[in-house]
Amino acid sequence: MKELKTMKSTELLEKINEKDLIAINNPSEKVHVVWHDNEYGIRICRPSMIKMGTHSRDERDWEILDKCKEYNEYENKVKELGREICKHCLKHIFKFTKI
Ligand SMILES: [Zn+2]
């Protein structure tokens, strides 16, 4: 199994790109997909999950698990990882992208 780097939100926000699959460092956590929105730029389903600011004690550890070539790979990729998809993400990628 590939060794993944865990990172705090601040670092995560610098690293993530469109179509990255990200999750909190815990196998029971859902996997989210990063998408690009023309208005807001790089986004995830619930931006508040990635806390910004100075409350470092509240920060969680995140991992970039994989990357999709196309958004329609999201569900399968997450299944391959043996993880759970995020319903919010699924809804958002259908809404904001042309699958
Ligand atoms: Zn999500």
List the helices and strands and how they pair.
Blueprint: E1 6-7, H1 9-15, E2 20-24, E3 32-33, E4 35-37, E5 41-43, E6 62-67, H2 74-80, H3 87-96
Antiparallel strand pairs: 1-6, 2-3, 2-6, 4-5
Residues 32, 45, 86, 88-89 line the site of zinc ion.
Question: Can you give me a brief rundown of this structure?
Answer:
The protein is α+β, with helices and mostly antiparallel strands and 99 residues long. The chain has helices at 9-15, 74-80, 87-96, and strands at 6-7, 20-24, 32-33, 35-37, 41-43, 62-67. The strands form 2 sheets. Strands 1-6-2-3 form a 4-stranded antiparallel β-sheet. Strands 4-5 form a two-stranded antiparallel ribbon.
Query: What strand order characterises the main sheet?
Result: 1-6-2-3
Low-confidence stretches: none
The succession of helices and strands, N to C, reads EHEEEEEHH
Number of E strands: 6
Which whole number gives the mean pLDDT? 86
The chain-level structural class is: alpha+beta
Largest sheet: 4 strands, antiparallel
